Structure formats: C-alpha cells, structure tokens
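HOLO CASE FILE
Compound: phosphoenolpyruvate
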Amino acid sequence: MRKRFVAGNWKMHMNIAEAEALASAIVERTKGTDFRVLVAPPFTALHTVSKIVAGSHVELGAQNMAAAEKGAHTGEISPLMLADIGVSSVILGHSERRHDYGESDSLINSKVVLALSHGFEVILCVGETLEERDTGKAERVVGTQLESGLAGVSEDLLARVVVAYEPVWAIGTGRTATPEDADAIHAHIRRAIGDMYSSAAAESLVIQYGGSVKPDNASGLLGKENIDGALVGGASLKAEDFAAIVNA
Ligand code: PEP
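Model generated. Tokens follow.
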C-alpha cells in the first residue's frame, strides 16, 4: 500500500523568521494526517526548520545537493552537511535546476546515486516542456529522464526513490494538468518502472504530481489512481493552503 506524500518546495523564499513561523504553522495544521508531509526550505533556513520539525510528523527535505562529498566546490552543499542538519530527503532534477542551471541527466544521476548512498530518500523530478507535450513527446521525454536519472540504482535502493511528475509548463504558471492527463503520465511512469525493475517495484513506487497544485484542485488530482501525492511550490508558502492540500 503506497503512503500518500505531500512535499512543499519553498524555493528561494523565506528568511529565517518567516521560515520558523511557516514551519511551526505547518506542524500545527497538519497534525493527525495520514499523509507523509515534508518541507524543503531554502538552505539558509534548514537548520532552524530542522529544530522545529524535530520529533514531529513533518519531515525535512533539501532542494538540491552537490554531486560530491567535499572539496573545492564553491557554493555547493554536501550530502554530509545535509545529513548533519537532519535532512532526510533531497529533491533532485527539479525543472528549474535542469533548465535554468543546466543540470544534465548525467549530473542528476550522479546526485541521485550519491544521495542514495548516503541514506537519503530522493524525490526525482521529471517532466516535459510545453513544446515537447505539443509535439507528442511527453512520454518519451519522461521515460528518458527516468532511465538516465535512475541508471545504476538497484531495486533495493529504488525503495527510497519517489518520482515527482512535474510538467514544466505547469510549474508556477497557474496552469495545471487535468487529473486525467496527469494520471495518464503517472501510469506511464509506473509502466516504465515495471519494465526497468519489476511489477512489485512499479506497484510500490510513490509518484507525486507537481505543477500549480492548490487547495481547489488537489482533491481532483489526488483522487486519481496513480497520483500518490503532490510536490507543491507556490501554495506551500502559506500554511493554510499547504494544510488544505494535505487534508484534501
Ligand atoms: C515546484 O516547484 O515543484 C512546483 C510544482 O511549483 P508550483 O506548485 O508553484 O507550480
């Protein structure tokens, strides 16, 4: 049985005081949920938020991670540093990292393998651009991102991977895939995992949807058979909206 999982990606928002208030409100407002709940604050607020969520049901995520443990990597954050702060999950392959910062499938794969070797859960983001969707390439693009992102990941390690399907054209745009369209790609992802691993692996894979998820569209999306949760950007910045999605 797949456990429902809602994660909030705060991106480059929130100073320390704001992060503290938001994290406390999310802990309070999502108490008693059956879902897994995770927040991914900016790096500067991770330590503060880690103290707030410690001992609660809310898990701590990081928005990115270096592909190396230590050394001359100016501006990067090591898996050792994230573990030290109490991070349990790392978001990798987010479309903003792929498209705005030029992260390739092979770099993302190095990060995935390193993160898993350090015991983290990985939320691996995949998704097509509008042009790719309009030219009928969505399934192929997502399939390639999955295959390259998971190269060298064994079925045992796959148990610590969550896939987030995030169509690029729906992120931060207010446009959402219809529940039917999203579910169709989620089913495709599950089939692809079945081909790469096994039907048991496909059945147990948690697949989140991301792209302008809001309180008013969450229940339609989360009601679909293959949609096991959400990766939420904008709406995760207000405790009330985020909690409404968790409680959808
Ligand atoms: C995201 O950043 O992963 C995301 C889905 O953002 P938004 O919910 O704002 O579209």
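CASE NOTES: The chain is about 45% helix and 15% strand. The longest helix spans residues 179-196.
CLOSED: yes
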